[in-house]
Amino acid sequence: GLERSRVEEMIHAMQRAGAGSLQVISDFDMTLTRFAHNGRRVPTTHNILDNRLLISEDCAKKMKDLLNTYYPVEIDASRSTEEKLPHMVDWWTKVHELLIQQKIRKDLLAQAVKESTVMLRDGYKEFFDHLAEQQVPLLIFSAGVGDILEEVIQQNRVFHPNTHVISNYMDFDHAGVLQAFKGQLIHTFNKREGALRRAAGLTALQGRPNVLLLGDSLGDLTMADGVSEPENVLTIGFLNDQVEQRKESYVNSFDIVLVKDETMDVPNAVLRHII
Ligand code: C5P
Ligand code: MG
User: What residues have a C-beta under 5 A from ligand 2, the ion?
Assistant: First the structure.
């Protein structure tokens, strides 16, 4: 984490430059959504698909086994990003293959989101609404499933016109059945490539050199790598899991670290200062 005075200086500089110079880049799963609620894990966009409307019991079991194998690798403080990369590609590739075999129907996705226990963090409405009112673009950059992510923010009534999404989108055939995933795979640790390939081309983000970046993974720090000539990039990291093992690396990597904080209170307070 940066010293308090450095964070304050950056917030001042961003405030002086104003809303017209600002963009917000945020991860989705476990950053805009809660990690846990009443002691239970909140589902990620992939886990929302674990609903008998969409996938079989057998497929659900296979996805759980994959999660139990690969999630500990994703958050392992003792392994480097380079070491984790091939495992993440394996995880996402295997899960997407399983999902495609299930012939998931597009018209059932909204129902699955409704039936899930997904929750955005407390204070989400102020966050999304304030950015929309100030016409500050919000880029949601997610290695989750784009169709599900959009449905979650839609159902919470905060999908405003300033919102842009880069994620893994489902490709449906003419009958509305899942046949593939579109474009290059995005996983936790290749967001830099996505930022250079996709975010850098979004015209709504041009000429906004000040960035508020929110994430829950060290991989999320590369989401702003597509910003040309950045001036102030203030990063906030949510440390949800494996707190003791990861605290040091998070404090060294993010400007502000929020430990087991299920709210948007700090991002909202920062935004109230800036715009
Ligand atoms: O939106 P975000 O980039 O955070 O989405 C990726 C998250 O989804 C990862 O942190 C990972 O733990 C989770 N994931 C999952 N099931 C999968 C693949 C990823 O829950 N099959
Ligand atoms: Mg995340």
Answer: 27, 29-31, 216
pLDDT of 3 reads 72
Tokens 């494996």 sit at which residue? 242
> 143 in ligand 1 pocket by Cβ < 6 Å?
yes
Helix (H, G, I), strand (E, B) or coil at 270: helix
Q: What is the whole-number distance in angstroms between the Cα of residue 144 and the centre of ligand 1?
A: 5
Q: What is the mean pLDDT of each run of 10 residues along the chain (275 residues)?
A: 85 98 98 98 98 98 98 98 98 98 98 98 98 98 98 98 98 98 98 95 96 98 97 98 98 98 98 97
d(CA 11, CA 33): 24
Q: Are 164 and 202 in contact (CB under 8 A)?
A: yes
Pair of tokens at residue 30: 């476990």
Rg (CA), the chain: 18
- Cross-strand bridge partners of residue 122: 263
Rounded to 10 degrees, the C-alpha dihedral 118/220/188/140 comes to 50
8-state DSSP, 260: S
Residue at token pair 């390939």: 197
Residues carrying an active site annotation: 27, 29
